[in-house]
Design brief:
Order of helices and strands of chain A: HEHEEEEHHH
Number of strands of chain A: 5
Strand order of the largest sheet of chain B: 3-4-5-8-6
Structural class of chain B: alpha+beta
Number of helices of chain A: 5
CATH class of chain B: Mainly Beta
Oligomer: heterodimer
Order of helices and strands of chain B: HEEHEEEEHEE
Largest sheet of chain B: 5 strands, mixed, barrel
Radius of gyration of chain A: 27 Å
Strand content of chain A: 15-25%
Helix content of chain B: 10-25%
Distance between the termini of chain A: 46 Å
Radius of gyration of chain B: 18 Å
Number of helices of chain B: 3
Number of domains of chain A: 3
CATH superfamily of chain B: Nucleic acid-binding proteins
C-alpha cells in the first residue's frame, strides 16, 4: 500500500537525520538525571595546602605573597578580601581561598567536562535563539518517529498483537508511576 | 545536497554566535541601567532598595556549580556581596567566570532568616557542601531555599532576582 511505503520512508529518513541528536540528548539526559550525585558540566579538583602564617597587608600584597609561596607566576584576574579572615585569589580556571592569617589555602581547579558540557549545553538550550526552534523541530521529529514507528509492522508483531501489548506496557509505566507518586 | 549542507552550516554558524560584544558576554536582558548602586550602599540601606530594580557591579566570587542558576557578585574593596539568583535555565552563569568582573541587574530583595535557619546555617558551616541547597531550591521570601553558603548580613540574606547580567573577560 502507498501509505505504508510513505510511513517507512518517513521513519527511515527522520530516523537517520535525528540519530546523532538522539544520542546527544540521551547521554545528556542520563548525566542530568543524576545531577545530585555529580557536577555534570565541570571537573572540579580541590587541594589543601599550607603556606605558613601571612603578614598583615593589602589584598594585592597578600595575594602576591601567597602566589610567591606557592610558586605561581600567573597574573591573577582579581584578588578579593572576603572578610577579616578570608582572601580569594582568582586565576584562570583556578581559585585560591586563603584563610588569614594562618595561611591555609584551598586550591580549587575547575574546567569544563569534555563532551558533557557541550551535550548539556544543547540539551538545556543554553544558547536559546536558533537552538530553540531546532530543538522544537527535533521534538516534532521524535513525534513523527513514534507515530510512524508503531505502524511499520503489521500482523502478529504489529499493533494487532505483540506491538499493542508493548505499546500498552510502555504507556502504563508512566501512568502507574503518576498514580502512585502524584495522584494518590 | 552539497549546497544544502554548506548553506545549513553557514546559517547555524551565524545563529550560534553567542551575545558577545568585545570581551563581554551578555546574559538575559543584559544591563539596562546606566548607574550601578554600590553593594555596600545596598546592604547599609536595604529598605531604600527593596522591591526596586537595581544594577550592581563587582567581582564574581561564587557561582552555582551544577546549574549556573546564581552567582555572587562582591565588592572587591569591602568584601560585601549580593547573590544574583535567576530561574533555572533562563540564564546560566558559567562556573569558570569566577573572579571576573560583572554587572548584574534585577529586583532587590532582603530575606529574613528565622532563628532555626540561622542555627541550621551555623551547623552547615561545619560540614555542608558549599552551595548544596542553593543548587536545588529557589530562594523564597520565608528564607527557605536560600542555601547555606549565601552570605548573611545579620538576620538577612540579600538577593537580586536577576533579569540580566554582563560578564567581562
Amino acid at each position: 500500500m502507498h501509505w505504508r511505503k510513505l510511513i517507512i520512508a518517513t521513519h527511515r529518513d527522520v530516523g537517520y537525520f535525528f540519530a546523532g541528536l538522539t544520542v546527544i540528548y540521551a547521554v545528556s539526559g542520563v548525566a542530568l538525571n543524576h545531577i545530585d550525585d555529580w557536577i555534570p558540566n565541570y571537573v572540579i579538583r580541590t587541594e589543601v595546602v599550607e603556606v605558613g602564617v601571612l603578614p598583615f597587608g593589602a589584598p594585592s600584597e597578600l595575594g602576591a605573597e601567597v602566589l610567591g609561596r606557592m610558586q605561581i607566576t600567573e597574573e591573577p584576574n582579581s584578588i578579593v578580601r572576603m572578610g577579616q579572615d578570608e582572601l580569594k585569589i582568582f586565576l584562570d580556571q583556578r581559585t585560591l581561598t586563603v584563610t588569614l592569617p594562618g595561611g591555609r589555602v584551598v586550591d580549587e581547579y575547575a574546567r569544563r567536562r569534555y563532551a558533557f558540557f557541550e551535550v548539556n549545553y544543547l540539551h538545556l538550550n543554553h544558547g536559546k535563539g536558533f537552538w530553540t526552534w531546532f530543538a522544537d523541530l527535533y521534538a516534532v521529529g521524535l513525534l513523527t518517529l513514534a507515530c510512524t514507528g508503531i505502524f511499520i509492522i503489521t500482523g502478529k508483531k504489529g499493533l494487532g498483537g505483540r506491538g499493542r501489548r508493548l505499546l500498552i506496557a510502555g504507556l502504563s509505566i508512566p501512568i502507574i508511576y503518576l498514580v502512585l507518586a502524584v495522584w494518590l | 545536497m552539497k549546497r544544502f549542507l554548506i548553506l545549513s552550516f553557514v546559517i547555524i554558524a551565524i545563529a550560534a554566535v553567542p551575545a558577545v560584544a568585545g570581551d563581554t558576554t551578555s546574559y538575559g536582558d543584559g544591563v539596562t541601567l546606566k548607574e550601578a548602586v554600590a553593594i555596600d550602599t545596598l546592604i547599609a540601606n536595604p529598605d531604600d532598595y527593596i522591591g526596586r530594580t537595581v544594577r550592581v557591579d563587582g567581582v564574581i566570587t561564587g557561582v552555582c556549580k551544577k546549574r549556573g542558576c546564581w552567582m555572587q557578585v562582591t565588592d572587591s574593596e569591602s568584601g560585601n556581596g549580593v547573590r544574583i539568583k535567576v530561574e533555572d535555565g533562563v540564564m546560566v552563569f558559567p562556573y569558570t567566570s569566577m573572579g571576573l568582573e560583572a554587572s548584574a541587574e534585577g529586583v532587590f530583595e532582603a530575606i529574613k532568616l528565622t532563628p532555626e535557619q540561622i542555627e541550621a546555617r551555623t551547623a552547615a558551616a561545619h560540614g555542608h557542601e558549599v552551595g548544596e541547597d542553593c543548587d536545588k531550591d529557589e530562594p523564597k521570601r520565608d528564607g527557605s531555599g536560600v542555601g547555606c553558603d549565601a552570605p548573611a548580613v545579620g538576620e538577612y540574606v540579600y538577593v537580586i532576582r536577576g533579569t540580566g547580567a554582563v560578564i567581562k573577560g
